[in-house]
Amino acid sequence: SCHGDPAVNVIGKSRNILFDSDTFIWNSGQGISLSYPASNVTVMNSTANHNGGSGFQGYRLKNVLWQNVEGSYNNWRGAQEAYYEWNTAGMHSFSDHNETISGFTAKYNQTKSIHWDTANADITVTSFLSSQNMIGPLYEKNQGPLSISGSTFCNSQSMASGYAGFILRNSEKATLTGNTFYNNNVAQLLVTGEVGGISVTDWETLVGYNLITSHIT
Fold it and tell me: Among 39, 44, 150, 167, which residue has the fewest nearby CB atoms (within 10 Å)?
């Protein structure tokens, strides 16, 4: 794919989609992108490694399952210009609703292992390994809830302020249970936010939220 574009792009009123045992590798942009209003999506036993931007991307998905997938060694193109911000991650989930991640491996990404970015809701994560990435998971500007259990977050490499093994920023209702954090630079777990909150709108309900980092367990 060209820079900024996915190799595989699912968009529009698509339902009941299954990707099984597929490989999305060495693209200049993203590996695979699934976008609104796609729903009832399963990606399993698949790999999105060595892509120039993000490996996996979901945008406003409804009812999505990521099972036994790997997104590693991504954002090599972004890293050439020291760009680690929007739309760079092993997995970039933007405003997804009812998302389940079971068995996700993210290693050696030159960016975030996963970025839950803006108005994500009802997320359940188990058996997630985030290791040797520049930045750990970023849970940012989300109303939640998010539940993560039985996962490991280790060896994040960035020494920059604002990064850590796991980052909670202007988000609510995150519960982390039975996880392991170790050997991350800056901090194992960073809880942060903008003074006064950040406003977002739920695309499905059109309810507005002013998000302040709170209700973290």
Answer: 150
